[in-house]
Structures are given as C-alpha cells and as structure tokens.
Amino acid sequence: MDSTQLWTLTDGHAGNRRQADALAVALDCGPAQDWRLQPRLPWSVSAPRSFAGAEHAFGPGFAQALSQPPRLAIGCGRQAALATRLLRERGSKAVQILDPRIDTKYWDLVVAPEHDLLQGDNVITLLGSLNPVDDAWLARARAAFAWFAEFPQPRTAVLLGGSSTHARFDRSAFEVLASKLEVALAREGGSVMITVSRRTPADLIAALRHRYVETPGVVWCGEDDGANPYEGLLAWADRIVCSPDSVNMVSEACATEAPVFVFDPMRVSGRPRRFLDSLLAHGRIRTMDTQLAPFEAEPLRETARVAALVRERLSL
Questions:
Q1: Band (23; pLDDT cuts 50, 70, 90)
Q2: Is residue 1 very low, low, confident or very high in pLDDT (cuts 50, 70, 90)?
C-alpha cells in the first residue's frame, strides 16, 4: 500500500484525529493522507445519512478526489462517517471509528467502544478509545521531556478536562479535587505535573495558574505556556489523577503503567459512566481519595489488538 492508498478522515477535532491516526499507525500501511472535513449544509446536520448530491458535501476538492479513492479509508466521527460511506461506494475498504448511529452495513468495519453497546458482524469493540500510547511512545516521551526526571517523587500527573454532555467538571469540582490532592502532597511531598484541555473553563484555569506556584513540577494552562507537555506527564507519572469527563483522556492515562485515580466517577452518566464502571470493575482505575495509594494495574492497550483484527478481516 503506497502513500496514496490510505486516507484518514475526521472533522479535525483532536479526539477524533487522534483515534484515526492511532489506528492508521498501528496498521503499519505507510503514510496516510489526512482529510479534515468541513461539511456543507444540509449534510453537516444529516451525516452520515446520504442522499442525492452527497458527493459535494465536503467541497469540490473532496468531490474530485472521490474519482481516485484509496484502498483503505479510516474515518472517526459522524461527519467522517458520510465520507467513508461515499468512499466505500467507490471501491475503498472503509473502517469507521465510533458508532455512526445508523445501520453499520454501509462500512466494511465499525470500531466502537464497548460502552456504546453496538453489535454486529462487522463491529469490533474495545474498552475505551484508540490511542498511540505504548512502550515505544512512552520511551520517546521520556526522552523528549528528560528534565522531568528532576521533579521529586512521587510525581503526580493531573489531567483536567471540563464539563460535557455526560459530566459536570467546573471550578467548584476542581476545588474539591485540588483539596484531596493537597492532602496527599502535604503527607508525601513530591511534585505535580498538570495540564488542561480545550474544554477546561477559564475560571478554573485562573484558579489553577497560581495554586501550585510553590509546589515543584509543571503546570500548563494553555498555549501562552508553550507546548503542551501532556506526553511527558504520561511518561514520567508515578500516578495519574483524571477528571472524569473524557473517555479519551482516561483511556490514554490507563495505557501507561501508572495507577490511575478518577475524580468522582459517580458524577458521570450515560455511556461514559459504563466505561468508568468497567474500568473500576477491572481494577484499572480507582476513585480519587486523599491517599492515592499505589496499586498494580495492567496497562489498557487496545489499539494493537484492534489493528490486528482489522488486518485480518480486510486481508491487509
């Protein structure tokens, strides 16, 4: 498969791009052409449903590219599901990541998290989300952020998101999380390595920016602080604390060997709650408390397994 024979297609959102890219890399089929789709009305609201003229949903560039479809198309998210559906109609093998919310017969394979409860002969399920975190990825990150070795142990990585459809994580929730963390820091010392996400509210970031100025470590509050050290946090963490709102974030934390503590999973509802309940039942995460006691846990690494199934099913 050459460089023109593998496409990844997303709406450009970081979580969707990360999953599509992770699967493409794990398949080891060579470099991929990355499509960041900007759908037009009415397809932006109707995708992945298709009707007359759908080939023009993503503009003239994509419409023209449909005449030379790749051998394999990997899409993630609802907008990409229309694109991968169109490509399959033109001869591509189409792998769609996440539940397209319509019949899966329009794709060769659909890769969906277990908590979506999607079933079908062409459905591959996984616990959590696809991501690139494995031993090699962590080794590269440790080398890139080698100066994190100077932080005193235990190094506590803190991954902060924000409110979502299924979870509330705001300034008041952060204050509770921070108070629990500070009990552990007062008892054990060590350092903190903290990062926020695009969804983290401004008032929470303002509170965070000055809260740990006397604590060893690094606090990243946004682009004004330089490049996000997220990869270094995962690679150097002795333990990880996560807000409960992001399946992707918790999945990547759990792909390390560090014990993972999720703040108040009970505040999560719907499908993400089923994901956290499964991790709790498997012993891969624990509810955050003031002890943050170490525990043994097997890294959650589903990407290589899913890639092997995709290769087998599609004879790649």
A1: very high
A2: very low
Q: Which pLDDT band, with edges at 50, 70 and 90, does 43 fall under? A: confident
CB 100 within 8 A of CB 81: yes
Render the chain in DSSP notation, one character per residue: --TTSEEEEE-S-HHHHHHHHHHHHHHT----EEEE--PPTTHHHHTT---TTGGGTT-HHHHHHTTS--SEEEEESHHHHHHHHHHHHTT-EEEEES--SS-GGGSSEEEEEGGG----TTEEEESS-----SHHHHHHHHHHTGGGGGSPSSEEEEE-----SS----HHHHHHHHHHHHHHHHHH--EEEEE--TTS-HHHHHHHHHHTTTSSEEEE-SGGG-S--HHHHHHH-SEEEE-SS-HHHHHHHHTSSS-EEES-GGG--HHHHHHHHHHHHHTSEEE--S------------HHHHHHHHHHHHT-
What H or E segment, with its residue span, contains residue 113? strand 109-113
Q: For residues 70 and 126, what is the distance between their CA atoms, to the nearest angstrom?
A: 26
pLDDT at residue number 4: 65
pLDDT tens, residue by residue, 96-122: 999 999 999 999 999 999 999 999 999
- Counted residue by residue, the chain has a size of 316
Region 264-282 average pLDDT: 97
Query: What per-residue confidence (pLDDT) applies to 205?
Result: 97
Q: What percent of the chain has pLDDT over 70?
A: 99
316 and 29 Cβ atoms separated by less than 8 Å: yes
Angle at 193 between CA 152 and CA 128, to 5 degrees: 125
